[in-house]
Design a protein that fits this description.
By secondary structure, the chain is α/β, with parallel strands linked by helices. The strands form 2 sheets. Strands 3-2-1-4-5-6-7 form a 7-stranded parallel sheet, with helices on both faces. Strands 10-9-8-11-12-13 form a 6-stranded parallel sheet, with helices on both faces. The radius of gyration is 21 Å and the shape is globular. The structure holds alpha-D-glucopyranose. Alpha-D-glucopyranose (GLC) binds next to helix 1.
Length: about 400
């Protein structure tokens, strides 16, 4: 079996981390299979793929495709915009040249199956797929808010053989967005639970963020996320500003703007200003991107998830649980399939800074509760979210699609 994976990003966001774990899981289960990744840019994903022994080919997106993102695809609910988009972006000479190169590369690689891992590649894969090669769309995000993308995927869905979604919640959304016609399977994400462990190296978050060393006994509360607006960094800062200043806490924002798309992300500078406006600058550390997510999570006492929109899955929640950390989640969307309230996580209503502040205060003052949530979380991660499960679920699907296409 030869599978070619198409990724529209080479950064290490959640969807890309899952792609690596998925490939590693398949490689371990099926050492004879040939796996190849085509990426739209150079970036850290290339080294990660190489490290697990997988060949990569970079076919750089033209600028127009690289910059096209959520901001252009959300809130466009009229057909004029849609046809404009098709004409200006997907029908430009640069995009046609891209499709031609992708077609040629796929033709030369001769895959038995193509697996695409992001919206732009779902479309490009559908257009460039060689005849008789089944295409699997692995959908990591909600489709309905992206009206233009929904229309484009509806138009091309006849060229897709099956859809994988990262949660039942995303599955419902995809069915509503593009119809019921295609086989659809939920494959909850998996992580390497031997890397995300409770014990191990920790980062010095204070020095990374340029803060003086925190006094012993400081409770470290962190939000690890890309800087997309909907990840709720401002809610997190507002919640911290509501916490009793006499409690020994520090807040950390771990992550940076990762993707090339326009208008969808905040910046470290903007968050610094917000912290200053709230009068909590000296207690907030902004570390930037880290290549050591497990060590970063282990440095925290409390891990906060603050998405203001329903989270499709929430990989960082499972990573934090696997590191035995106490987690507070903004409970909506796929997150509900991961957590058991008050057993392996505390939950609050998305966007509610007051409730988040209450949960942080409760956990900051209760080491036993933190420990109890942490061990329950570790158990959840190892039992339900180890990456080994990915191959067990995907290999039969790939096999049945390939034999159906012969
Ligand atoms: C996307 C989703 C996130 C999910 C990740 C991996 O980034 O927004 O919720 O955890 O993909 O599936």
């Amino acid at each position: 079996m030869k599978i070619v994976f198409l990724s529209p990003s080479a950064q290490l966001g959640g969807a890309e981390a899952v792609l690596i774990d998925l490939i590693a899981s398949i490689k371990a289960a099926q050492p004879g299979w040939q796996l190849h990744v085509i990426l739209s840019e150079d970036g850290p994903l290339v080294a990660r793929a190489t490290a697990i022994g997988v060949a990569t080919t970079i076919i750089n997106f033209p600028e127009s495709l690289a910059r096209l993102g959520d901001s252009a695809l959300i809130d466009n609910d009229n057909n004029n915009r849609f046809s404009l988009l098709r004409r200006t972006v997907f029908a430009t000479p640069a995009a046609s040249a891209y499709v031609a190169r992708l077609k040629k590369t796929l033709h030369d690689l001769k895959p038995d199956l193509i697996h695409t891992n992001g919206f732009k590649m779902h479309l490009l894969g559908a257009i460039a797929r060689p005849r008789a090669v089944p295409l699997v769309w692995h959908i990591h995000d909600y489709l309905q808010p992206r009206q233009v993308m929904s229309s484009l995927m509806k138009l091309t869905r006849g060229r897709c053989a099956a859809i994988i979604v990262n949660s039942n919640s995303v599955g419902q959304d995809v069915k509503q967005a593009i119809g019921n016609g295609l086989p659809l399977q939920t494959v909850h994400n998996g992580i390497n639970t031997r890397v995300f462990t409770p014990q191990g190296e920790r980062l010095d978050l204070d020095s990374l963020a340029g803060l003086s060393a925190a006094p012993t006994g400081t409770i470290r509360v962190g939000l690890p996320a890309t800087l997309a607006h909907w990840k709720g960094h401002k809610i997190f800062l507002q919640a911290l500003a509501l916490i009793d200043p006499d409690l020994p806490w520090r807040g950390y924002i771990i992550g940076d703007a990762l993707y090339q798309t326009n208008g969808s992300q905040t910046s470290i500078a903007e968050l610094r200003e917000e912290a200053a406006r709230l009068g909590i600058s000296e207690r907030i550390g902004l570390t930037g991107f880290t290549t050591q997510p497990a060590a970063a999570l282990r440095s925290l006492d409390i891990v906060v998830h603050a998405s203001t929109q329903p989270e499709p899955f929430g990989l960082v929640i499972v990573e934090a649980m696997s590191c035995g950390r106490a987690v507070i989640v903004s409970a909506a969307g796929g997150v509900e399939e991961v957590i058991e309230r008050n057993i392996n996580a505390l939950a609050y209503e998305p966007g509610n800074a007051n409730q988040l502040a209450e949960r942080i205060t409760q956990l900051a003052g209760d080491a036993q509760l933190r420990a109890r949530l942490g061990s329950a979380g570790r158990l959840t991660a190892t039992r339900r979210f180890d990456r080994q499960r990915l191959a067990a679920e995907l290999v039969p699907l790939y096999r049945s699609l390939v034999s159906a296409h012969v």
